[in-house]
Amino acid sequence: MAAPPLLTLQDVALTFGGTPLISQAELAISPGERTCLVGRNGSGKSTLMKIAAGLVEPDKGTRFIQPGTTIRYLSQEPDFSGFETTLDFVESGLNHDDDTYRARYLLESLGLTGAEDPKSLSGGEGRRVALAQALAPEPDILLLDEPTNHLDLPAIEWLESELRSVRGALVLISHDRRFLSALSKTTIWLDRGVTRRIEQGFSTFEAWRDAFFEEEERDRHKLERKIADEEHWLRYGVTARRKRNVRRLGNLHALRKERRDDRRPVGTATMTSTEAESSGALVIEAKHAAKSYGARKIVDDLSLRVMRGDRLGIVGANGAGKTTLINLLTGQAAPDSGTIALGTNLKMMLLDQARAVLEPSMTVTEVLTGGSGDSVIVGGVSRHVIGYLKDFLFAPEQARTPVSVLSGGERNRLLIARALAQPANLLVLDEPTNDLDLETLDLLQEMLADYSGTLILVSHDRDFLDRVVGSVLVSEGEGAWVEYAGGYTDMIAQRGEGVQARAAARGAKAEAKERGKPVETAAPAGKGKLGFKDQHELKTLPERMKKLESDIVKLRAVLADSGLYARDPARFSKASGLLSAAEAELAKAEDRWLELEMLRDA
């Protein structure tokens, strides 16, 4: 018998400024459940998460939590006042019987020492500290709203691994497809104020959503035909049979009201970029370029060619120097040695992370038009600003909305709309996917696929990199940058590992290998035993290996059907892929278990 839910929301509704944000939302979170909450920007996902956390009171509906259940919510804007160090802040979220070592372990894993002054933290560091505070007590329910924002690739992959091992229930909001697919087992879709639930992870959600919209469109078409039939009757039949058909006339009015009240999904976005004349064949050429700040090498002996039409992804840990590299490649900074030459006829459009161009008091229209008129020039053609806004999923009534009331995703969409209206044959996009919903990510991807100019993309979104770029330039540490063909997954296959946070540690290992010395795995400082995470991993690995072995047996049984490929090639392909992944994961888990056992024995 299934355990009762730890947390339930029933018939929840909330209105902002006279417009229903949430009209009929349901949520039930059971012990150990892995749920992702998805929906478009501005649909109310974060608000629903706050209602679940008890931070926002709905206009109506009920919230029930099982007595004794602990909940932790990842705050987007944590309040650090009153805390002298980041460790103090994280430990403030612990219960009296929680392991205080876990607070230190989480901070160190996220690249912090615990001694930092919270008042001097950057936005990204503040997010990491808030994440550590939410994870430290190992609550029954963990509510995480965009936990990967401001995290670099090593931190995202570390967080993915950490969340797999938590015992409590997870509710995730994220724009990172790979992150959601790896962690979710249930999907809740918030669409036009209503929640819909499927007992499958995110990897199946988009196909299900598209099928739902197709069915909805068929139903809407039937309603339109029925209204047309009733209106025909109204014109030609109601006079002769007025008394007998008053009810039918009432039914027509009800159908019209149903059509008026129908909240259709926001229209499909159409992203187009304004392309300038073609640049020369050679866009950027670096020869033995180097750049340092003091003793620290940011770029060392870089030789690189970017040709017209290339799609170059740049990845590296935070602090690796990606922004400096962009400045060098675009001519905004000069190398200390070597040369970087820009090609002819370049018209560059740079969308950086600062996003400083949006004044909170400006309206959406003013951002696009510069405060003059109601038209915007796109591709040399004048377009009314409302029509252009519709292309980016904004409703007409949002044209006069101040920037200050837009969600983070809506602000980013507005910036992209503003940027793409400028003529360019070289797009330089620094983390363009932050805070975007999944539909907008798809449309941005399609626009970039159709773009005939040159693209340089800095991103921590592994799925987006795989879909968009043709090569990846990776920081190898100590100023070294190496280009790999293909996307992020292809880079891992060639390199043997993903982006690592501690390049210095890799350098020490390589140096030891060159000298013929064995590479040792260091125990945690001051301890002669396994660390907290290692102990937990050693304890949980046998169960995980048992589950993988069971999955492999089931998949092999499916593939043993000799007629499966002819009957259902899609299912055969999916089962084959799952089998390969499960076998690889089992081999990795067995190697890790053996490594930990040997370390414990030592």
Provide a descriptive summary of the structure in words.
It contains 19 helices and 20 strands. With 602 residues, it is an alpha/beta fold. The protein folds into 3 domains: 7-206, Rossmann fold; 282-495, Rossmann fold, CATH 3.40.50.300; 521-601, Valyl-tRNA synthetase, C-terminal domain (Helix Hairpins). Strands 5-6-7-3-8-9 form a 6-stranded mixed β-sheet, sandwiched between helices. A 6-stranded mixed β-sheet has the order 14-17-18-12-19-20, with helices on both faces. A 3-stranded antiparallel β-sheet has the order 2-1-4, covered by helices on one side. Helix 7 packs antiparallel against helix 8. The longest helix is centred in the last third of the chain and has 33 residues, at 569-601. Mean pLDDT is 80; it is low at 502-528.
Question: Which features would summarize this protein structure in a list?
Answer:
602 residues; alpha/beta; Rossmann fold; Helix Hairpins; 3 domains; six-stranded mixed sheet; 19 helices; 41% helix; globular
